[in-house]
Write a structure and sequence with these properties.
about 250 residues, single chain, binds biotin, alpha+beta, seven-stranded mixed beta sheet
Length: about 250
C-alpha cells in the first residue's frame, strides 16, 4: 500500500518529514540532514531500506511497503546525561504505539526490543553524536512472512492479528509518545522512565537470560535496572553484573 505522507504531515505539522520510496538506510539520510542543520524533530521515513541497520552491527530486514522504517532527530538536553534513559524511552514509545493502535500487549526486552510472544516485532537504534540523538525505529507491520533466518525470531503485527495496519498511524503515535517521554527526560525524571520500563518488561525482574557482551557471555537472573538504567543480572555464583551493552535473550 502507498505511504500516505499527507496524513503524517497533517498529524505532525511541526515536523519536517522527508519521505523516500527506497533508501539504503534512513539513519544515513537523517545524519546528513542533521549535518546540514535540519531542525530537531525532522523525520526520515522510507518505504524500503536496502541496507537497514540493526543494533550490534546486525542488519534490519526492510522489505518494501510492509514495514515502518524511520529515523528522527532528537536533541536531548545532554545526550550523555540521558543515556541510556533515552534508549529505553524509545522502546516505551514504540510499545505504547503498538498497544494503543493494535490493542496488543507487547513485551520489552532491555534495552529496547519490542516483542510479541518472544518474537521481535520492532527494534530501536539510537545513535548519539555531539549532543544529538538519531533514533531509528523499525516496526514489522504487514509482513506476511520472513526470510528463513528470521523465522521463529521475528513476527509482524499482521501475523499477530490477521489484519493489516496503517503504518502512518503507527508513525504518528510513536512520534507523539516519544515527545511525551522526552518531556519527562527534560524534567530530569529518568527514574520515571526506568519505573515504566520495569512495569512493561517481563525481562526486568526474575527472568533467566543469557547476555552476550563483547568478549564474554553471562548467564543469570535479572534484578531490575540500576539507578542509571542499566540491566542488572545475578549469576549462579551470586555475583551481581551490570549490563552496559549487549544482546539479551531468554534461556
Ligand atoms: C534493532 O536491531 O533492534 C534495531 C533496528 C532498527 C531498525 C530501524 S529501521 C529505520 C532505521 N534505519 C535503519 O537502518 N535502522 C533503523
Amino acid at each position: 500500500m502507498l505511504f500516505d505522507l499527507d496524513y503524517v504531515r497533517n498529524c505532525l505539522p511541526e515536523h519536517e518529514v522527508i519521505y523516500l520510496p527506497s533508501v539504503d538506510t534512513t539513519m544515513r539520510v537523517a545524519a546528513e540532514a542533521a549535518a546540514r542543520g535540519a531542525p530537531a524533530g525532522t523525520i526520515v521515513v522510507a518505504d524500503e531500506q536496502t541496507a537497514g541497520r540493526g543494533r550490534l552491527g546486525r542488519s534490519w530486514y526492510s522489505a518494501p511497503g510492509v514495514g515502518l522504517y524511520f529515523s528522527i532527530l532528537v536533541w536531548p538536553k545532554s545526550a550523555a546525561e540521558v543515556f541510556p534513559a533515552l534508549t529505553l524511552a524509545c522502546g516505551l514509545a514504540v510499545h505504547d504505539a503498538i498497544s494503543t493502535e493494535c490493542k496488543l500487549e507487547p513485551d520489552l526486552r532491555w534495552p529496547n526490543d519490542v516483542l510479541i510472544r518472544e518474537r521481535k516485532v520492532a527494534g530501536v537504534l539510537t545513535q548519539l553524536e555531539d549532543g544529538l540523538a538519531i533514533v531509528g525505529i523499525g516496526i514489522n507491520v504487514n509482513h506476511k512472512s520472513f526470510p528463513a533466518e528470521l523465522q521463529g525470531l521475528a513476527t509482524s503485527l499482521y501475523l499477530e492479528t490477521g489484519r493489516e495496519w496503517p503504518r502512518e498511524a503507527l508513525l504518528v503515535r510513536c512520534v507523539e509518545q516519544l515527545k511525551s517521554y522526552q518531556k519527562i527526560l527534560e524534567q530530569s525524571d529518568k527514574q520515571e522512565i526506568f519505573r515504566l520500563f520495569e512495569q512493561r518488561s517481563s525481562y526486568a525482574w526474575g527472568k533467566r537470560v543469557v547476555v552476550e557482551m563483547p568478549g564474554k557471555v553471562i548467564r543469570g537472573i535479572t534484578e531490575g535496572l540500576n539507578s542509571e538504567g542499566f540491566l542488572q543480572l545475578r549469576s549462579e555464583d551470586g555475583v551481581l553484573h551490570t549490563v552496559i551493552a549487549g544482546g539479551v535473550r531468554s534461556e
